Fold this protein.
Amino acid sequence: MESRKSIHDLVRDDLRALMANPRMSAADRQRLQQHFDSIRDMEVTMDGMGNDMVKGCAWGGVETSKLEALKTFKFTQDGMIEDIARLQMSLVALAFACNYNRTATLQWGDGTDHTIYPVPSNESLQWPFNYICHRAQSDSSTGDNPLAAQAHAEIDVVRMQTLAAGLDHFKARGLEDKSFVLWTNAIADCPSDSFRNVPNIIWGDGGGHLRQAAYVDAGNTTNSPLLNALITAAIQDTGETMENFGIGPAGQLRDVLA
């Protein structure tokens, strides 16, 4: 059976051959040795990163057959978005565990979400989510339909179950202290559509920077102090911090810091 060398092996062999060439000057040989050493240092670093997360760097737990089916699927608005969100979170967890990527953004619905959730209180209404949110059959005006309010509470439970199922993939890959996941809304609540006191759920301590298992009241402030803390958690391996992201108070929200 033929044994094939990797590109790294071939590069190393070429460097060794060059350094052994008697026509090479001492200065050139020294430069090549430095280049050789830098390649070796890079490999050691990459190996270390892989070993640090090797526990979760495997396809196990990812429903590959369902992901393959998405290539030819027909999207339906009967709550299918929940399955897609969960599958996408499983892929993000795998990418993080393998150090294939370090950031990801997943949009879950949109501003006028017309997903029809099959929750008990929506069986008679059959309203899309945005109507439920507005408590009226409208994407703009608001009402006070009590059945819609109950349906909204039931939909929140469904969506939090999806989030929990997605976070299970991160936990199974040992990412609690190596990353963080932020879940948030575009608005604070419905039907007010307020931008104050927007809820945030943070899972994972971002390498020990973020506090866990706590409810924090941010005091009706803007998002800047929280975002400063989250960005700092994400870049702390660089030795840098973020203190003035966006428009708002400078500094990090101390109540979310470990």
